[in-house]
Amino acid sequence: KAKALDPNSWLSIKRLGDYYFSRNEFDKAIATYLETESVAAGIKNDELRRHYLRRCYTCVAFSYINADKGKKAAKYFEKVLMLYTDEKESYLVLKYLQQLYFDQRQWVLLKPVAEKINALFPNHYAHAYMALGSYYYEEEKDIENALNFYKKAAQVNCMSDTFIGGNDREIGAIILMVLGELYLKDMNDEATAIEYFEKVLNIDTKTQQISRAAEHLYNLAEKRGDEEVMAKYKAHRGEIQKLLSLFNDPFEPTPPK
Length: 257
Description:
The protein is mostly helical. Helices cover 72% and strands 0% of the residues. α2 packs antiparallel against α3 (26-33) and α3 packs antiparallel against α5 (46-66). The model is unreliable at 161-166 and 246-257 (pLDDT under 50).
């Protein structure tokens, strides 16, 4: 009714879109959010127009994410990026776009986004260096560059102290796990791989990476015929699995306020 009384009210459009979003009616949510475009077309103030469109396209992108349509979500995040006049304000959009490209394994599209994050915030966000490591490993088959970027990610993860980057233990476990598996499978360097797997176990976090590291260490000990180490990690694996079974917190994105 509020929208009918004032069809040019951004707030009424947003709230109706959020209502459909909350009911998982994503097609209706998207169609409603996009009504903002006609409202924005009548706004003379350029910054205000950009603001409304950024909010609109961000909500549309999240609707597509929740509808499992990642490619369409990426297209709308790209639209949001074009509406920023200060690139540094676009960090969160770049982060979402990077994650979507990673999930879709679109390495060529991922690379410039990760490079942009690193250019805007050098030595700050581990996930952007991880993304470049994945690009060089998956797309270029360049193990040396992949290793360098993953090592840089590990270093940056310990340096950063922001609420987004942070010394994130889970990210740290993933980076160390990837490095260990690269040394084991691609470099055939079991000694270095073991060092990284053991570092994973020393991280105070509840993550599947710890279970994977213990599995690798057990298998390598079995290969060497080291029964003492096998017994240690066999018990360790059991304890980890019991602990991990208590935690299940999937990420479910919601539209921004």
